Amino acid sequence: MRIIFRFGGIALLVAAIVILAVLPFATSFVEQWSRRDVELRSRLVFNSVRDQVTGLLARNDTQQVAGLFERIASDERVLAIGYCDGQELRFPTANMPKSFSCAEAARSDSESFSTVRNQDHNILVSSFPLNAGGRVGHLVVLHDLSYAEQRGGEARNYLFLALAGVAFGAAALAAMIAALIMRRWLASIRQALESARAGNAQSTVEENIIPLGKEIRDVLQELEASRRTIDAAHTDWSPDTLRAALANELSGSEVIVVSNREPYIHNRTEAGEISLQIPASGLVSALEPVVRACGGTWVAHGSGTADRDTVDANDRVPVPPNHPSYTLRRVWLSDEEQDGYYYGAANEGLWPLCHIAFVRPIFRESDWQLYRSVNEKFAEAIVAEAKREDPIILVQDYHFALLPRMIRDRLPNATIVTFWHIPWPNAETFGICPWREEIIDGLLGSSILGFHTQAHCNNFLDSVDSFVESRIDRERDSVFFGGEETLIRPYPISIEWPPTAMEGQKPVEECRRIVRERLSVSPDMRIGVGIERFDYTKGIIDRMQAIDTLLTEHPEWHGNFSFIQVAAPTRSKLANYRLLQEEAEALARDINERHGGNGYEPIKLLIRHHEPDEVFELFRAADLCIVSSLHDGMNLVAKEFVAARDDEQGVLILSAFAGASRELSEALIVNPYNAHAMGQAINRALTMPEPEQRERMRLMRDQVKERNVYRWAGQMLLSASRLRKQQRIRQLIARGRRRAAANA
Ligand code: F6P
Q1: What local confidence, expressed as pLDDT, does residue 229 receive?
Q2: How many other β-carbons are positioned within 10 Å of the β-carbon of residue 192?
Q3: Which atom of ligand 1 is nearest to the CA of 279?
Q4: Strand, coil or helix: 472
Q5: Pocket perturbation via mutation, ligand 1, pick of 261, 571, 635 by most ligand atoms within 8 A of CB
Q6: How far, CA to CA in Å, does 705 sit from each of 42, 133, 679?
Q7: DSSP secondary structure string, 348-403?
Q8: How far is the CA of 396 from the centre of ligand 1 (A)?
Q9: Is the dihedral of CA 635, 639, 645, 650 positive or negative?
Q10: Rounded-to-integer distance, Cα 391 and Cα 257, Å
Q11: Which domains are delineated in the chain?
């Protein structure tokens, strides 16, 4: 309704401006027109009496002239008449103004017209030359012009009324047209939303019939795309901007995060004390600062030996322990559940399925049943934690492929954003999974499903296309399945900026000295580092082979280069992981025997968990860092190394098969399967001039700073907010319809 009034108002305003501009012109036009009319009348008077007056003057019949003049002046339009004989006024009629003077009026040899002011109105003085008996005089006819002014005023009033009438008519017409357009517009939006929701072939037909609906959708898509670009390009993402985005876009919303790995693990030490551990997990290091900024609840598996001793009666514990800002809700799993769900289905099945590392996945039906039941258990925990019927739930990773659907069944109004932290394989590879349809169905319970890269999004869409009945909208990158839409989007994960682990770090020179001392390495030894979980996807063996090649092909590095490999034990229950560790230890020994000696160890293998500040100290002490993943969704170690180097020195050697290589293109990009090329890259890194190191590092730091983890979370949450707004529109339309039906 407001928009209709606005249209009418604008039309009225335009009309008022036109009226104000036109009225003065119209008045003066009417006045001029009336004056010309009076001039014409004067001329008529003169022409009709000229001969008679000439004759009477020639005969000097003054009485007849005066009588004739009085008769002419009796016409109500003629004010007065007289004869100017030179400067002398003769035979003036009774109404001749006292102020009239022949000197002013009768000066021309031809007819002339002039206006004089008398009291409060104008008088037109028409003067006509007259030859009477050889003497040239002037017949002067005076007309009162007040009637012309009156006519102008009347014309102005009529015109004003007429234009005002037209203006009101135009305003009413504009309002009617606006009302009509609005109705069509709303109908089109309704159609567009409905067809989008229906998601079947029918909607394609409807789009063609109602082009406006398609246009609206296109515009909305463009808006969304431009907003994504704006978000990406112009926001300096930080905890504050993330909090502001939440407050502006999702105020009053409830955020629940769910992951298998918990951000804080409480363990009982041998001395019986409780120690706190921050796990070696890319997921945790990325997500924890985000949840710290947003608040809310994080639901995760309580895996620590003292976890039960640190929760309240509802299995909740406020974290971070020093400055609590959110709630960790722990879910307990039996050994049997962990074996089937975590070690079995997730890490022997899905992990090798999704990573091209040539480790054969194992699919056990008994594992899958436990995977399903643990997903159910987490769904129940989430429902118990939810205080509203429409929370925003951020589901993390391959441990919870079935969870989005289970939440959707229990909380239909929830906004579920799922992020898959590992690669998604191509459809052919995914097709070997016996649970492929159930996994896709589970994930499509999400409102938004995110991957690190567009390539993984494409692989997922291809898998959906191959294995379930659905409609894929390739332009929108979404899947319509069972009447619901899931958006498939790339959100490259990152790290916090500035990293907490940088707080209290010593200057680079000091870190170099401290680390070399601690590891018993000579002060001028060049150092490379590799830091990760002991996982076969990380290419640890391949990296060692490259070092072997380097030392073989470039013996000048013997005694001058040492590689520190930090590997945190992980999933050690699994044979593949144990074998990897044994193989790595054996290879390190072998290389050290062949190339080392006299206290020189080319490879130092440190198999233990390192806390973030130790990791950053190592990064700062190193000349280069190797990330040689055989396949990796993103890899945050690469980004952390860059973040640690505020001295803008150090070289990153990065696998082309890690998602991070798409963003950190100034690293030395390598194929980890090519030991020779990787050896060359290490040599290149060790001989790279400082200015080149600085230039590369500066660009990478800018990239990591700008595309930090707050941006990652912010973009997902903004997408969730847009979805919720669209959902609200649909609900409003449905409510309006129900009311209309009830009133009908
Ligand atoms: O890469 C997926 C991922 O969840 C990472 O985020 C994390 O580094 C790793 O797996 C954690 O493994 P886990 O929790 O099994 O130790």
Answers
A1: 41
A2: 22
A3: 16
A4: strand
A5: 261
A6: 91, 110, 30
A7: IIIHHHHS-SS------HHHHHHHHHHHHHHHHHHHHH-SSSS-EEEEESGGGSSH
A8: 10
A9: positive
A10: 10
A11: 1-150 (3.30.450.20), 254-490 (3.40.50.2000), 515-707 (3.40.50.2000)
Neighbours of 282 (CB within 10 A): 22
Local confidence band at 57 (pLDDT 50, 70, 90 cut-offs):
confident
Q: How far is the CA of 347 from the centre of ligand 1 (A)?
A: 10
Ligand 1 neighbour 261 (Cβ under 6 A): yes
Kindly report, residue by residue over 434-491, the tens digit of the pLDDT.
999 999 999 999 999 999 999 999 999 999 999 999 999 999 999 999 999 999 999 9
Say which residue, 677 or 67, is predicted with more confidence: 677
- Specify the pLDDT at position 518: 97
CA distances from 513 to 427, 517, 520, 612 (A): 50, 6, 10, 19
* Beta-strand relationship, 603-606 and 561-568: parallel
**Closest to 89 (Cα-Cα) out of 66, 67, 112:** 66
Distance 398 CA to ligand 1 centre (A): 9
CA distance 281 to 636: 9
Which atom of ligand 1 sits closest to the CA of residue 342?
15
Single-letter residue type at 473: D
Dihedral, CA of residue 350, residue 354, residue 355 and residue 359, to nearest 10: 50
Residue type at position 686:
L
Six-digit token string for 478? 């979404």
- pTM, rounded to two decimals: 0.71
Tell which one of 397, 399, 631 to mutate to probe ligand 1, the residue whose CB is within 8 A of the most ligand atoms: 397
Residue 82 predicted with pLDDT over 50: yes
Strand order of the β-sheet with 297-301 is 316-319, 326-331, 297-301, 255-258, 392-396, 415-419, 448-451, 484-490, 478-481, 471-473
> How many CB atoms within 10 Å of residue 68?
17
Q: What are the pLDDT digits (tens) for 19-31?
A: 778 777 877 887 8
Of 281, 338, 343, 354, best ligand 1 pocket probe by most atoms within 8 Å of the beta carbon: 281
